């Protein structure tokens, strides 16, 4: 064997491809994961629900500010709570499950591509998914959607194996659907919808007579039923009003929308899916033009990738990240599109050598260099939170000025364990409190200080942020306030 052949042999070695893809994924998903805080929506909300699982010991009925909360299914919050237990409550633990499930989704997509096409397709599909802007972004957020994408991918991979003859995989499909529902409620039914459409399009009537298929259906219904039962027992009408009517039906109903409203999701996707969008389009075109020799795989990929944008365009609420559970199908289509452009074995070996080299190099640079991986979120809240926690737990009353309840309290509660119910809109309302003898803290903006002064209110600074400031009605000693720990150390 000639020395010049060594790089080519390494490039086509499936173990080398797998481990380079794994290293590159670890570098992009986990490097400096605990830095730069979290967004108040929705990261801090989910992080707080998870934190309160450990505080209350209640796993099925979530709570927010120690009041029962029926907004979300619990599985993702369970995962965050377990991470909190291992790593300590903080930003890293809150984001860890999303990053882990992002890694597992990339590797599962690699497995699907390798198993049903070839390792070349699996490698590029994994890379396309990992470097999809929205997928990478939300893999580093404490949010539900990447975890949902993993369970969707697992369910549909199992379903594909089942309809190709390995019928026992219907049970894994049912488990995946159940866990998807337990992650994001009605959105978790998507792999069940895809499976139903595939059965219809392929005219797989025999599937409906298969006991193992119905075993999978029963398993998914059983998992969903346990969760719904616990919520109805705990909340009854509150669960129906909050979760069914507000969270689910609220995303569907409402005033009729214009054509522009329905197409707004397409505009977002045209914005966020670069640079791989042309390959996605080419890949789906290739699937449409195929001779359907591998019809189960082709039909499943088309339905999986294309049904979601149609459904979301009909909904009232259509955030781009709702699409993430369809992104694995798009990544596989993109790899097929690239395969159309690079058909020769020699050329594919050259591409693999170059791409694997770039992945190694970029992964090393990302890991070693102080590159900021995330936007700095809720910096002021993180600065002020230790002081809020210290003095509020000693009996101080906490109020705020000119803030939105959820925008302030999601992050404040997560980082300080305390929230404020009292939010004033006029500084003059502070005067009676600030003239009292008991310690009162107020979260205000620097721009409000002049108006506070003009009302004749005496105040003392506790801690300055960049925009927010924590003030008090009396001088306090701050030298002993602990400002280091998993929640604030970044």
Query: SSE order, as H and E?
Result: HHHEEHHHHHHHHHHHHHHHEHEHEHEE
Percent strand equals: 5-15%
CA-atom Rg in angstroms:
26 Å
**Structural class, please?**
mainly alpha
Q: Structurally, how many domains make up the residues?
A: 2
Strand order of the largest sheet: 4-3-5-7-6
Distance between termini?
51 Å
Helical coverage, percent range? 55-70%
Average pLDDT level = 91
Ranges with pLDDT <50 over ≥5 residues? none
Largest sheet: 5 strands, mixed
Q: Based on DSSP secondary structure assignment, what is the total number of beta strands? A: 7
Describe the structure.
With 490 residues, the protein is mostly helical. 62% of the residues lie in helices and 6% in strands. The protein folds into 2 domains: 3-368, no CATH class; 379-472, D-Maltodextrin-Binding Protein, domain 2 (3-Layer(aba) Sandwich), CATH 3.40.190. The protein is built from 21 helices and 7 strands. The strands form 2 sheets. A 5-stranded mixed sheet has the order 4-3-5-7-6, covered by helices on one side. A two-stranded antiparallel sheet has the order 1-2. A hairpin with a 2-residue loop joins strand 1 (63-64) and strand 2 (67-68). Helix 2 packs antiparallel against helix 5 (91-116), helix 3 packs across helix 19 and helix 15 packs across helix 16. The longest helix is centred in the N-terminal third of the chain and has 26 residues, at 91-116. The model has no long low-confidence stretch (mean pLDDT 91).
């Amino acid at each position: 064997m000639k020395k010049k052949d060594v790089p080519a042999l390494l490039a086509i070695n499936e173990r080398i491809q797998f481990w380079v893809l794994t290293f590159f994924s670890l570098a992009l998903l986990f490097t400096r994961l605990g830095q730069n805080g979290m967004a108040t929506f929705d990261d801090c909300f989910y992080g707080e629900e998870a934190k309160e699982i450990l505080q209350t010991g209640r796993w099925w009925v979530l709570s927010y500010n120690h009041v029962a909360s029926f907004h979300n299914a619990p599985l993702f919050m369970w995962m965050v709570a377990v991470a909190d237990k291992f790593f300590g409550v903080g930003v890293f633990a809150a984001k860890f499950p999303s990053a882990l499930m992002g890694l597992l989704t990339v590797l599962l997509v690699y497995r699907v591509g390798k198993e049903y096409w070839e390792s070349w397709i699996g490698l590029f599909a994994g890379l396309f998914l990992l470097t999809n802007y929205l997928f990478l972004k939300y893999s580093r957020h404490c949010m539900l959607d990447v975890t949902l994408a993993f369970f969707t991918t697992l369910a549909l991979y199992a379903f594909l194996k089942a309809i190709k003859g390995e019928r026992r995989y219907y049970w894994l499909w049912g488990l995946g659907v159940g866990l998807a529902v337990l992650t994001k409620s009605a959105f978790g039914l998507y792999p069940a919808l895809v499976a139903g459409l595939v059965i219809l399009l392929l005219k797989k009537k025999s599937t409906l007579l298969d006991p193992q298929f119905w075993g999978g259906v029963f398993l998914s219904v059983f998992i969903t039923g346990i969760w719904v039962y616990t919520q109805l027992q705990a909340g009854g009408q509150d669960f129906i009003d909050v979760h069914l009517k507000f969270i689910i039906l609220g995303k569907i109903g409402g005033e009729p929308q214009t054509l522009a409203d329905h197409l707004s999701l397409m505009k977002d996707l045209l914005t966020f899916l670069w640079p791989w969008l042309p390959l996605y389009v080419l890949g789906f075109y290739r699937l449409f033009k195929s001779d359907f020799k591998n019809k189960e795989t082709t039909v499943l990929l088309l339905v999986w990738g294309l049904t979601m944008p149609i459904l979301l365009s009909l909904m009232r609420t259509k955030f781009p990240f709702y699409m993430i559970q369809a992104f694995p199908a798009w990544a596989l289509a993109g790899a097929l599109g690239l395969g159309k452009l690079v058909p020769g074995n020699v050329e594919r070996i050259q591409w693999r050598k170059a791409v694997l080299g770039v992945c190694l190099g970029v992964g090393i640079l990302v890991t070693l260099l102080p590159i900021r991986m995330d936007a700095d979120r809720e910096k002021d809240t993180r600065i002020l939170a230790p002081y809020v926690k210290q003095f509020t737990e000693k009996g101080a009353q906490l109020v705020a000025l000119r803030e939105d309840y959820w925008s302030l309290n999601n992050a404040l509660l997560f980082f300080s364990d305390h929230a404020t119910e009292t939010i004033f809109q006029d500084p003059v309302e502070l005067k009676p409190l600030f003239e009292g003898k008991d310690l009162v803290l107020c979260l205000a903006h620097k721009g409000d200080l002049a108006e506070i002064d003009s009302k004749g209110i005496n105040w003392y600074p506790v801690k300055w942020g960049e925009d927010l400031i924590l003030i008090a009605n009396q001088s306090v000693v701050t030298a002993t306030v602990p400002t280091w720990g998993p929640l604030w150390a970044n």
